[in-house]
Design goal:
The chain is mainly alpha-helical and 58 residues long. Helix content is 79%, strand content 0%. The protein is built from three helices and no strands.
């Protein structure tokens, strides 16, 4: 897939779909930080809770 193809698909997404994809990327980043011991379990849980709440995810 070229950059133009992925950009076109991104542009076709609704605001809610874009927010959901952003949420998933941020959650994955938190999981990576936890796996590499860059943050504690407590920091991970607090950050995930805050992210979930602010992004309106369930």
């Amino acid at each position: 897939m070229t950059e133009n193809e992925s950009t076109g698909k991104w542009d076709d997404l609704s605001h809610e779909e874009k927010n959901h994809l952003l949420y998933l990327k941020q959650k994955k980043l938190l999981e990576t930080l936890l796996a590499h011991h860059a943050i504690s379990r407590a920091q991970y849980e607090k950050s995930l809770h805050d992210l979930t709440e602010k992004m309106g995810e369930s």
